[in-house]
Structure formats: C-alpha cells, structure tokens
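ligand=manganese (II) ion
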Amino acid sequence: MNAGKELQLNGLLLIEQIQALGQLGADAENGGRTRIALTDAEKAGRDQVVDWMRDLDLDVQVDRIGNIFGTLRSPNDPGDQRPLMMGSHIDTVTNAGALDGCYGVLAGLAVIRAFRDAGVLPQRSITVAAFTNEEGVRYQPDMMGSLVHAGGMPLEEALDSIGTDGTRLGDELERIGYAGPLEPGAIAPHEYIELHIEQGPILEAEGKSIGVVENLQGISWQQVEIKGNANHAGTTPTRLRHDAGFVASAIVTALRAIAVETGSTLATVGCMKLEPNVINVIPRKATLTVDLRDPDEAKLVNAENRLSQYLGEIAEREGVSITTERLVRFQPVNFDASLADEIEASAQRLGLSSRRMTSGAGHDAQMIARIAPAAMIFVPSRGGISHNPREHTDDDQLIQGARVLLDVVSRRLGAS
Ligand code: HGY
Ligand code: MN
Ligand code: MN
C-alpha cells in the first residue's frame, strides 16, 4: 500500500450525489422527499446507491434484512478480515430533508473514491453500509437493520414485523428485491465511524464546524390507546363525558410538563388518531404515540414511570380505559473514547473548530457500538432543522465533514 500518496476527497461529486439521491421520492406538493423503508421510492434509492458502489468496483453484498454493504478489499484481506466500516441509512421520514442518513453513506463512498483515485489499496478492507429501516416510521423499532446486524433483534422477528400499513416487512423486502443472502452480522466491523448532520441547533449556535459525538441518549417509544364513550356533542354534559379526545390532549400537556420540569427529558407525541373523528361526536377512542428521550437512563425511567402514573390517575378521573404497548426501548450509549479523540485530532489538523457532544437523535452507530468500537462525526444543521424539507447544511460544511472522515479513516489505516 503506497501510504505516501495524498488522498483527495472529491467534494463536488459528493454534493452531486447527495442532490441526485435527494431527487428520488421527491414530494412535488410538500417539498422534500419521502423514501419510507421498503417502499418503491426507497428501492429506487437503494438501486442508485448500489450502482454507485459498483461504479467504485466494490464488492456489493446484501444481507437477509436488506442491509447493503460495499467493500473495497485490502490486498491483506484473505476474505474474512474485519473491515473498517462507515455507513448510515438512506430511508427517510415523510417529507424529509436530503441529508439525514444519506450524507453518511455517500461520504463513505467518497472516502473510498479517494483511495481509488489515488490508486491506494488500504491495509484493511473498508466497507460502507446502508442499513435498513433506520427511521422506524413504517416498521418499528427504528435502527432495525443495524440492530439485527448487531444481534440485538432476531432476524425472523424483524422479518415478521407488521407495518403501520399492515404489510409484513419480510414480504416487502422480497417485493423490492432486497432480501439478500448474507447472514446478518456476517461482516463484523473492526471499527465503525458514522458521519451525520447534527439535526439540532448546537454547532450552529456555537459556530463550531465539527461535532465529536461521545454518546447518544436513550429512546423510549410507546403507543397509548384510550377508550371512552362516544356521545352527542350537544346533549352530553361535561361531567358525564368519557372523552378519549380530551384525555389524549391532557396526556400531551402532562408530557410537556414532565419535559420542562426535568429540563433534560424530551417528550414528543408525533401521532394521534381520534375515532370516530367527526365534528359532533365525543371521541370514543384515541390512539397516540409517545417518544421519550434522555441521555441519563435513570431520568428516562423516571419519565416513563411518571407517565404511567399519570395514565392511571386520569383513567380513573375520566372513566376511560388506557392501555400501552412498548414499541422501542434503547438505553443511552457511550461511543469509543479513542475514536472520539481521533475525530477531534483530525478536526484540529484540518483547522476546524469542534466540540464534544451528545446525539439527540438515534443512529445506526448506537447499534454497531454493541459489536465494535464506534463513534460519530456531526456537521451543523441550519436552524437545527431536520426531519423537514428545510433541512440544510452548506456544501462547504458537508465537504469539511467528509474530509474529517477521510482523515480519520486514512490515519486509522495508516494511509497518511
Ligand atoms: O428517531 C430517531 O432519532 C432517528 O431519526 N431514527
Ligand atoms: Mn439519521
Ligand atoms: Mn432521521
């Protein structure tokens, strides 16, 4: 391996590919794009990434949960060497930005392209992964593909999961042609580095270019079902109501109070459905989802307990029945300290300001951290906006982040 050769990142091509991928699943009406996991739009995204991996002459493999891997083989790799892995996801939420997940996958390809362009073969194989169903919008849990890869969820259970649209994940994977032959976990990373947009306001507010992500907060998702009585909106006195809609709204307000009081726990009710959902009928049923997050496990448990206690009290008071179903529960994760140090050193070497931070969002890195040293690099998000068509990071910031990734990888592989 000719270590002396300068590795140059092709930043313009990275930006072009981000923009091209961002066109797949484009929403003419609402802006942004929607590539929900295992839909036709996401298949189009998968096909495009596989084409770009093939353009780089990578060894492309797909596993049984649909995770896609592109590997640049080292001459030292007899075929079973643990690769340095980069990656993220290309599925999106509804009306998403173009960067969430996609940036990390395409920057990984840009790093490999730098090796290819310099004619340098790495001393350790390098793999770029695009993990299945990171967003968990259609099938829960989120980060599903990387969780199965890390052995945290049985493959059959994942394949049998039923989506919010009633489809079975395994059937959809077959339908889009990404039920691959590789056993999940077969490619065990030697280490894993994920480049991602911050999706929050901190780096921009502090004028920092790079986030050195040391840890990631815990996540608790549950579905809450409230059953009351339908009745006439005009004839039913308030004191006689068992109003599922009122109780649902009270829960949202109670969650905000818990979040404000703790100062660190975040609470979100992202989905709410009322039945029969007509203007002059008191709702007989309400279904809502609760997303709780906190970097401190004890505080997250406390928030869950406070919610459970509140549900019991309000069910009693309003004469409704309330049931909950746990959808996701991941504890906070600490990333690899030496990798974080490397990222900080690379930012410094490239003359970029940085700060250490916690990830508010969930990422595939939190799952891969179960089986290998893992860390993350963040770049700023304009206005801290994400999961929104207005998600934006300047091109030069995106290129800087990818340069840090290249610098870390090339130093970890002794190629610089
Ligand atoms: O929910 C999350 O934090 C991630 O975007 N899946
Ligand atoms: Mn993401
Ligand atoms: Mn996301």
